[in-house]
Amino acid sequence: MDMLQDLESLQFEYGVPEEDRIWLYLQGRSRGLMIEACAHATFFCKLLYNLRASLNENQSSRHLSIDSLNSATPEEFKVGIIGGGHLGKQLAGTLLQLVPIPAESLRISTRRPEALGELQKLGIKCFYRNADLVSWADVIFLCCLPSQLPNICVEIHTSLEKTSIVYSFVAAVPLPRLKLLLNHTNILRPQYQYGEDSVSIWGANKKVIAALQDPTILQATCPYSPAGGIILKIKWLEGVFYAALNICTARNMAHSQVLQLLSELFLSVHFEDCGKDTASCPKFQITDFVSKAYGKNLSQERPFPWFDLTAVQLKETPFSQHLSSSPVLQDHLTHLYCASFGISLTKEQPVVSTGSPSQ
Fold first, then answer.
1. Same domain (yes/no): 259, 206
2. Do residue 280 and residue 192 come from a single domain?
3. Beta strands 106-109 and 165-168: pairing type?
4. Which are the contacts of 23, defined by CB distance < 8 A and separation ≥ 6?
5. 230 and 89 in one domain?
6. Does one domain contain both 212 and 245?
7. Residue-wise DSSP of 59-70
8. CA 215/CA 345 separation, integer angstroms
9. d(CA 337, CA 41)
């Protein structure tokens, strides 16, 4: 088949009439969305793994380097996927190999489990019991069709724990509607917008896993990067932070310890110059996440309150202001993102957009 790879008559574009070729960019956009979705879900799971491993081992006072981010053992962290279509299968394979999630900690509920033979051979349990999956998993990825979502929500909403994180890829169903359907607030939903310049960098002949090991493609998926013509709205990143706070609150962890832990976890990767002058590195303060009035009345040993993640992604928060006004913080998070995939940046490789981050 390698001999036929560049044969014109076998290319997708060959059968497209000339007048319709202006729409071919949609093929690249669809692939770009798939890669970005898998990349951001992988990054989210990596961070949660590391956070939970730290809490489980009572290491809140121990420095967490990027090495620990890549080597954390998520033995008690369980991930479920509802939907075994193209996105569900690609997501499962990416999480399995790039986080990596042990096969026994990853399950899929789909109407056609028999169609997922390759994933089952890898040790992933595939079945059609949505409620059972939700009661088992810590994070649930919704990879279903919009038309299927209402019935799925009816099936699963009573099985959700308060601490369960629902991560929705169903773009057609907005957060307020999803919150109502699930009667749940611990929900993340990434939103993407399209830039004016649509660049074909997504590697048409590469699998998603291989694409995310390509430095150019990986940097294009960075939350602050406009490359590739697809931009992640930064409210998702805020939701990730507040989700981490909720995990710590569920463990009744003092907010002062949480701030130290998150500073080490999220801000552990930076330029070499920061290592020479660590005082210039950002550290999280209580007022980065709550109002000054609330923070003033919160004793050192008290945990953070429980946050409604849907409200965090829909409204202005203290962290919105902090994140948008701190290029240094944006830079550190950019480095953390790339380093979690094994890619190191230098000052000559800027990724952060010079414009205002999209909210």
1. no
2. no
3. unpaired
4. none
5. yes
6. no
7. -TTS---HHHHH
8. 10
9. 12
pLDDT for position 28: 64
Q: What is residue 163's predicted lDDT score, i.e. its pLDDT? A: 95
**Does residue 308 share a domain with residue 274?**
yes
**111 contacts: CB under 8 Å, gap ≥ 6:** 84, 128
Residue 15 corresponds to which tokens in the numbers above? 């059968």
Counting as low any pLDDT under 70, the low residues of the chain are 1-28, 58-75, 196-199, 203-205, 269-280, 345-359
Q: Single out the residue in 206, 234, 262 at which a domain terminates.
A: 234
Domain that holds residue 211: 26-55+74-234
Same domain? For 180 and 251 the reply is no
**Which pLDDT belongs to residue 201?**
79
State how far the Cα of 271 lies from the Cα of 346, in Å rounded to an integer.
7
User: DSSP string spanning 323-347?
Assistant: HHT-HHHHHHHHHHHHHHTT----T
Tokens (6 digits) for 353: 């957009």
Give the H/E segment covering residue 194. Answer: strand 192-194
Cα(64)–Cα(262) distance, rounded to whole angstroms? 9
Number of structural domains (the chain) is 2
* Whether 177 and 313 share a structural domain: no
Buried b (16+ CB within 10 A) or exposed e, 270-283: beeebeeeeeebbe
Q: What is the pTM of this model?
A: 0.86
* String of DSSP letters for 101-160: PPGGGEEEE-S-GGG-HHHHHTT-EEES-HHHHHHH-SEEEE-S-GGGHHHHHHHHGGG-
Write the CATH number for 87.
3.40.50.720
Query: Tens of pLDDT along 59-78?
Result: 444 444 445 445 444 447 99
6: in domain: no
